[in-house]
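FIELD: query
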Amino acid sequence: MKNLIRLCCAAMSLLLAGCNLDIDIEGEGRVYSPERGIDCSSDCRDTNNGSPISITLRAEAAEGFTFLGFMPDGDDTASVNYGLILVSGGVYGAPLKFFQPSTADVHAVFYPTDQLAQRVSSGGSTCVVDTQEHMTCWGEGAKWHPAGLDNVSKLTLDDRTFCAYFNDRISCWNDLHAFPTDVPASIINPISTASNMYSSCILYQPGASNEIYCLGRFAPIPEFNNPTALWSDGGDTYCATDSSGTQCWGNSYFGQSRVPASLGNVSEFATGAFHTCAIASGQVHCWGDNTHGQLDVPDDLTNPSAILAGTNHTCVIDNGELRCWGAGNDIRTPLQAPELFDPKLMSLRHVILSLIDPGRSPALIYPIAETGVATPSLGTVTALASGVNTVCAISNGQLVCWGLADVTQQNFALTGIPYDIAAYNDLVCAATSAGVQCFSVRDNHNLKTPPAGLTQPSNMAFSSVHGCAVQNGAVMCWGDGAAAGEVNDVARGQGVVPAGLGTVTKVDVGQYHSCALTNDQTLHCWGEKPIPQS
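FIELD: result
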């Protein structure tokens, strides 16, 4: 029987007519909320009749048990409002609204540690395999998986698609979509799988050679002769390798990290979120996503000298003019003092373009989007960086930031004298005489903790998930996709620096790809979509 925790003085009938929070506990552990007086070691209920209130639930496993999550998720904290329930970390995937009178259920699962052999968790499901090779699942996707599956030797998760290997066979399911999951009995001896949100492909060995079988939404599979490797970028694109090379099928996406073979020597380049541009032999070349016309280089450029790429825009300095295109914008803004212009005085991130024109008063202009916040009084500006609704500058040797984002409220206590800055979203990193110092109100994929050896970079660049810098001619990257074996980022590999680059003079990054320019004017890119696709 549930314990009833009464947090407001009212008659029993009124309590039962209000909003109830039912906490169901499986296994051994406690769920508690100090600010509300909740402490449950077995099933309990909290009842509230007043206005919606907010609490935070936390879980603590008993000795010998492991907390698997507030199902259907693997997070260990749930924020609850009576009348409106919100769970941090996406425990319910999206806010779940309920209205009085109503009951909200929170299911906390604690599992015996010595029986836990494998565990995988997605945004809406958790599955475990015990030491007896029996599989159990909880959460949104539990209705799709085969119930009571035994003899499970391996359990994998790729883009919210689970695959269980059992009895020389395989079964796959997605925790959001019921794409066809009935794998024919002829698919035996599975070797590996590659999956995305709406489909899954299996590399298997039915006889003397390997074959590939796909289920769900997928394009026709090319012919392979004994394929040995299979992978997916998580976005309806699959690739496989056999003795003749690599073939891909599915959606070709943007190809922003594939440098054109005929590009030649590059003098300047820039990576946007999903497109890349370069100035080579005095000409501007762009490739990748062209949804907003960001690849449509004007045919009247004559002497481009600096280039930037954002999410939907591309901008260059050409013959003393700022030229931008993409997202319905065709901007031509003459610089008032082009002979004094420094490329470090121009920054483009997302749709925020900032530019310091030494001959203009006030010096800062926003030709694409306004921050909505007045520019502070600036002295001599030597570097500029744009985040999302945030701009930072080194002015008179000091770091000055302004805009709408939370980062502008931080107190930047720099050590040393700043000489360069880079920003993205609410992250700001400053290179100073005393080393690199980063500030952020969020974790930002560990970006605010640069590598220990990064002390005097000559160039830094960030996306929302990774960062790269140049120091003494070498590239260093950190954040997501920067280490082999990192879940969901290996295929992208935006932070895994290729070997043999040579001496690098500049690096820039897009959302999931990185590019570097070497001293022989060769452009190298790596990360998302590095392999030609059909």
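FIELD: remark
The CA atoms of residues 286 and 510 lie 14 Å apart.
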